[in-house]
Amino acid sequence: MAHAPTLDRLLHFLERSPTPWHAVDNMARRLEQAGYRRLEETEAWQLAPGDRFYVTRNASSLIAMQVPTDPLSGLRMIGAHTDSPGLRLKPQPVVAKKDWLQLSVEVYGGALLAPWFDRDLGLAGRIHVRREDGRLQGVLLHVDRPVAIIPSLAIHLDREANNGRALNAQTQMLPVVLQGGGEADLERWLKRWLYEQHGLENIQLLDYELSLYDMQRPSRVGIEGELIASARLDNLLSCFTGIEALLAGDGRQGALFVANDHEEVGSASACGAQGPFLGDVLRRVHAQLGEGGEDGWVRLIQGSRMISCDNAHAVHPNFPEKHDEHHGPAINGGPVIKVNANQRYATNSATAAMFRDICREAGTPVQTFVTRADMGCGSTIGPITATELGVPTLDVGIPQWGMHSIRETAGSRDADYLIRALTAFVNRTELD
Question: What GO MF terms are annotated (predicted)?
């Protein structure tokens, strides 16, 4: 089982990170507590060997870097993503129907919809406002109490409910939030919450990106606490392990952690893995601390390694036939190397061999996942980062159940296993 302080930090991080913006804010605070300084992309950077810094983009993606004291020749990179599938409010969400104020939602990513019914739902995200003095400001909102619910239709009114009925996200997934309310009521409550959380008065709401989220707290499950259950394990679990490993490193090697937004919708954005964020940061670092111009840039990238961390599908005891019988990762069986011959994962034999050797050094078990040959395969930021940057990459992840559900399940020992392996990677002197 993971060490209690680590597990406690993980559960707290999950609870306080209902959106990518909150996750980045929490990771930034953790980095600053450890001595990392914030850099702004719009300002000139002054970097020196041994520096520790972080930078954000769109407030929903983050890169943190430990600059080596020795010449910049190779980086140990860890990648993850901050977003999770869910329900996001439309720009004009208010629907008044049968004396109820409801909110029109858009499905973000490949969410499992059925588990969203009959849940206590909170509201979180970011809002941009015009202050009384005319300044524009973006602020985080976290309404950490139940304000919405999507009620099920009674089985007496839908006798086919248990026979695989399809759900219509446009008409059947609207949460109810207020009896007898209208559009002015939503604006009034948003302003009230902003005043309570930020002391903002006399403001004009300009725009927002708000999501519903499950109010049930993360918890340990099982007679002996073998499991953790929470929303957004995919992929905040990897964000947590990546930050923990970076901070646990000895600081002698060049190391970098990147957490991109928008992985669940294809990564094609300015702050997504298909965008220029990572390349922009690395080129600025190389311009100040690297050697050899463009030739040196290629040598730096080819002398680096990226471990893309995104959760893997654990074999499900109720559905064992969904896995290849020789590639069914077990909960609490250690990190999983993810392999796909069609490059849906970036792993190859060289990068997999390196990770197996790292796990041997760290004393952690390691597993392998390959999807069934007659089933499709998801993907990660791994192949995208490898394509955009050219860095040798592999995909690994913690095994879990219920991926893309409103509440997912993983093993209470696996986070510690991955942190140990990633820490050994951060400290590794040779990357061959």
Answer: aminopeptidase activity; metallopeptidase activity; zinc ion binding
